[in-house]
């Protein structure tokens, strides 16, 4: 049976840095001291070669740890691929014919310019006295200009009006989120705050992200699933995989 590896405390006692601080008792023979030093040298050489240390004696890398490392590497690679594909995204949705029932069920959202126009019309027809205009206050030359966010890509103009609208969050971010399920085996991209004809938005997202794929596919267990699904309870659109960078780029090109 091979000799058992010494403990960490014993290695620290006989390490080169602490060898002069701790004196070896006289009761230990020189041959025993040489054996301990040779064993410590072999353990130190093994630790430098394969990264093993005595404190990891009972914390060996299991198959579950290897699976988690593979999943982490896959997530990093998938996000890098999504960012690379996002650079070549274009906003070119095709008009989809809808039935009269779906048209009546999903009202078309108002454009962002509809509210200011309605306010201007209401103010012109009202008979209230105009409010006094405030006098401008002189500004000092030390005052800096207000912060202006970096403008995104130029929106693509379409010959038809989109029947849906995606509202940004309070922090002016796109409502696109990524999450994992099943212990990291399933990656999902969720799009929220959608108003209007959500099924049409679902088809347009599928055309942009999976142009050469059908709507359905079969997983490893043979179950039928969709690349882009709709949660009817919450109104969220769920996309398979890490597609956050592509979805945000597509929405920015659409002017959302």
Automatic annotation (TrEMBL):
GO biological process: translation
Coiled-coil ranges from the UniProt annotation: none
Region: Disordered, residue numbers: 123-160
Family: Belongs to the mitochondrion-specific ribosomal protein mL49 family.
GO molecular function: structural constituent of ribosome
Protein name (record): Large ribosomal subunit protein mL49
Subcellular location as annotated: Mitochondrion
Keyword Hydrolase: no
Domain of life: Eukaryota
GO cellular component, one term: mitochondrial large ribosomal subunit
Any one Pfam family match given in the protein's UniProt record, by short name: Img2
Keywords, sorted A to Z: Mitochondrion, Ribonucleoprotein, Ribosomal protein
Broad class of the protein's primary localization: mitochondrion
Presence of the UniProt keyword Ribonucleoprotein in the record: yes
